[in-house]
Amino acid sequence: MNDSHYCPHTPEEIQEMLSAIGVASVEELFSPIPSELRAKTFNLPPGLSEFETFDKMKSIASDNGGGMSAFVGGGFYDHIIPAAVDHLSGRAEFYTAYTPYQPECSQGTLQALFEYQTAICRLTGMGVSNASLYDGGTACAEAAMMALRITGRNKIIVDGCVNPFSRQVLKTYLYNLDVEVIEIAPLDGLLNREELAGMLDESVAAVLVQNPNFFGCVDDFTALAQQVHALDALLIASVYPISLGLLATPGEMGVDITVGDGQSLGNPLSFGGPSFGFIAAKKAHIRNMPGRIIGETVDKQGRRGFVLTLQAREQHIKRHKATSNICSNQGLCALRGLIFLSAIGRQGLVDMARMNRDKAEYAKAQLVSIPGVTALQSAATFNEFTIFLPKPADGVVAELLRKDIIAGVPLGQYYQGSENCLVVTVTEKRSRKEIDLLVKELEVAVCN
Amino acid sequence: MQLIYEQSVNGRRGVKLPVSDVPSAAELPENLLRRESAALPEVSELDLVRHFTNLSRRNYSLDTNFYPLGSCTMKYNAKVLENAAALFAPFHPMTALLPGGVEFCQGSLGMLYDLGQMLADITGMDEVTTQPLAGAHGEMTGILLIAAYHAARGNKAKKKYVVVPDSSHGTNPASASIAGYEIITVPTASYGDMDIELFKKAMNDEVAAVMMTCPNTLGLFNPHIKEISDIAHSHDALMYYDGANLNAIMGKVKPGDVGFDVIHVNLHKTFGTPHGGGGPGAGPVGVKKELIPFLPQPRIVMNDDGQFLLEDQKAASIGRTANFFGNFSVMAKAYAYIIMLGRDGLIRVSEQAVLNANYIKERLKAYYDLPYDMTCMHECVFSASKQLEHGVHAIDVAKFLIDKGYHPPTVYFPLIVKEAIMIEPTETESKATLDAFIDVMIEAAMTAETNPQLLHDAPVTTPVGRLDETKAAREQNVCCIG
Ligand SMILES: Cc1ncc(COP(=O)(O)O)c(C=O)c1O
Question: Which residue's CA lies nearest to atom 9 of ligand 1?
Answer without folding.
Answer: A328
